[in-house]
Design goal:
mainly alpha, Rna Polymerase Sigma Factor, Chain: A, Arc Repressor Mutant, subunit A
Length: 163
């Protein structure tokens, strides 16, 4: 298990980025919180994992967060819950008025969520987190030219959804 100071430093430095990644991939506040917590629990338990630098740590945390969200969505899709129950329990990702339905930020987030993955994750990492295509290629374990294609395709799809 990693030390409390190590976990605290990672959370201080990267909590916002991990939260945004979870919010992009999850539809409800509860799922975002669960994915966020699970990501840092996995970080705490991964004491054998060594990081070259802080960017490597951030990339690892983002990959774990995105995978955690996908796992949660897959698990939910396998459960036998009626549509009425699902709709009744879904909450908005934020209580902030800026990201409520009708706002531009909400529309962009919903448009990003509507994209397939890929290109959603590479596009998010590029536009929101500022990663370059070579860095994204390392995070998602794909060739750099493929990442460039995903980003271009994702931007085009985003334009179509938003227009």
């Amino acid at each position: 298990m990693r030390s409390a100071k190590d976990i605290e430093r990672a959370m201080t430095a990267h909590a916002d980025a991990v939260w945004r990644a979870c919010a992009l991939h999850c539809a409800s506040q509860a799922d975002v919180q669960d994915a966020f917590q699970e990501t840092f629990i996995k970080y705490a338990q991964a004491d054998g994992t060594m990081f070259a630098d802080d960017e490597h740590r951030k990339a690892w945390l983002l990959r774990v967060a995105i995978n955690q969200c996908k796992d949660m969505l897959r698990a939910r899709s396998r459960s036998d819950v009626s549509l009425d129950e699902t709709v009744a329990t879904v909450e908005l990702v934020s209580s902030d008025g800026v990201v409520q339905p009708g706002s531009v930020l909400f529309e962009v987030a919903e448009a990003l969520r509507s994209l397939d993955d890929p290109p959603r994750t590479p596009l998010y990492l590029s536009l929101c987190e500022g990663y370059t295509a070579p860095e994204i290629a390392e995070v998602v374990a794909a060739p750099v030219n493929t990442v460039y294609s995903w980003i271009a395709r994702g931007k085009q799809q985003l334009r179509e959804v938003l227009s």
